[in-house]
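Following up on my earlier thread - several people asked me to post the actual chain instead of describing it. Fair enough. Here it is, all 737 residues.
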Amino acid sequence: MTATDTPTTPIDPVTFEVIRHRLLAITDEQGATLAAISGSTHVVEASDYNVGLYLPDGSVAAMGRTILSHSSSMAAITRSVIGDCTEDPGINPGDMFIVNDPWKGTVHAQDVGLIAPIFHDGELLAWTGAMCHMVDVGGMTPGSFCVDATDSYQEGLQMPPTKLVDGGRVRTDVWNLILAHTRMAPTVNLDLRALIGANNTAVRAMTALADKYGADTVRTVMGNLITLSERRLRNRLAKLPDARVHSRAFLDNDGGLARSTEDAVYEVDLVLTKRGETLEFDFSASSPQAKGYVNCARSGMMAGIAAALLPTLAFDAPWNEGLFRPVDVICPEGLICNASRPAAVSGGALEAGWLVEMTAVECLSKLAACSDELLSEAQAVPAGGPDKFVLTGTGENGARQTYVIMDCLATGGGAYAHRDGAWTQGQHNIERQRISNIEAVEMDSPLLYVWRGLVADSGGAGRRRGGMSMGAVYTVRGGRDVTALNSAHGWTVPNSTGIFGGYPGAQNTRTVLHDSDLADRFATGRIPEVDELSGTRPDMRGRQGLYHLDDHDVLATVPQAGGGWGDPLDRPAEEIQADLDFGAVTPGAARRIYRAVLGEDGRVDPEATARQRERIRAERTSWPVTRPQPRVPDGPVTRMHPLGDVLSVVEIAGSRFTACACSRVLAPADGAWRPYAAFRATSDIHALSHATRLDEDLELRQYACPGCGLLHSTDVVRRGAPHPDDVRLTAAAGGER
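Reply from S.P.:
Thanks for posting it. Predicted structure:
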């Protein structure tokens, strides 16, 4: 049976619901089994794993609710197993196939998937699979994020579909081959056993389900679930106006190679076109693949799309193959988000693939904001990518180990039209995320926490504020030959962009002090601020690569945080005061970014703040415009569609225009509105956010209504680039465009 077959077995509604919930329960049982056996921090703390059940052709019927990026990846792996292994070595009961080849379905080699066929009465009933990120699969660098790699051959073991379990017996030769390629064999050994255990759980449960209800009934329910999800998404799309939505994200440098001559800024460029009941994701204008490890293969691109689509437009549908049927993807091979073998891709899940997700979230959110019904589902871009932190060293037990520190995942969420982003929401693509327990990290690794907590000003400013991220300060204690690896984009580029005038969230920040006086400060009985410490402060880069840490050295990090929604000048004075009281915003940022006036007592003066903001709005109306206001006919104004919550498409005497909430007509609706807006460009990123660095090739442009001074957009663009054009309703002038 394939996903496009029409099920013929009649199913009554009660039986359908019973089996549907049982399928979901089976994936929950798989996940619980995997976590119980693994013990890996990636699995237990970061929830960087997923499980699923698939039709005989590999179509996703049910999936776990952990990391969303693996949902499409697992289906691709299953189809690779079917294509590569059906004839030789054959697919039989009790078999399991291991895959971690990025051109066979995984996002990068650290994501290892194990796929098992489920037979019932001699016929293939379904497939099941489990996948998790493994701490190390070899390659140039501990943790297998190979920042200096120039091709995939330098990035560790990469297995195409390979039979690991043959008729219920583990192939010891393949097992030993895998363990011989990792620096963390005991951990990987448990991860492999956990994947087998998860699949065995599903095989037993699915077999029992087929025994009770019949194989045809179970397959029919799986197929109907896919049809249900497809119908639900198509119905939602049909209610949205046809539109073309454009988003561009910048990736600063390509890996360790960027230390000297390769310090380029790359682009992931998405044009999302919504027509009728379909979505087309076109990444054709993205940068060519890079020399360094920041690329992703097609599987990474599809993972990013899935992670954006499922929670944004399919939040109330079963997550399965049906949600991808209305989707077309255009991206020629050889681009940074669809790299050709043997491109380096070990960082792809957290680099180009991450920016695929960010651009897709922005486009889908702006599309949803063209509907009053779905406006509340739209959000600013969430945290734009972590600063990877991998520690290697010999601890108190005398064993040399690799530790992946998960604090960088505790990031703030993007803001919504109706509420602030959640602080420490966690990464957008991990639905059930946790982070490391401090005591566990200190027990297992030669790290001591000096501080961990919420970072003031990290959330992007706006009428609704982005959520705060969690920062941390560490020192090394009792370690020998300790090396750290840090690598991040979002170092000189704001990736967590705001929406509809909102400002970007914090960029990744990292400070290292060698030979610090931390121990002396501790002896006085207080915990010092990082700025108070003395010591040598080396210059940090986004792609720092490996460097040594000795006892009493200090590492301080702040991850990216969610973007803001709306003009920060519209944030009520009482909410700014609440932010100050809570510690979400510092007095300096309240003055600098929100333009609040604080009295001698440090509290917001509402009247003085209102007067200052009115002066600033008036100044905005004097910013230059590229084109004068269009001629507007006389007649009644009819609102046709929202474009967010302060712009809309209106109709006047048969012509359609884009208009501000103040009733000022900005532009004809069949063209871009920004050339008609008042605008200014700046490179002072700190005037708008927590960040202090902006790449010299980029600038920030702000666009305001020439009539009332309301800020409508804050865009990150290349210097000299034309005005962005983010949302265009393709039928706005009465016809397709």
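DSSP finds 13 helices and 27 strands in the chain. That should answer part of your original question.
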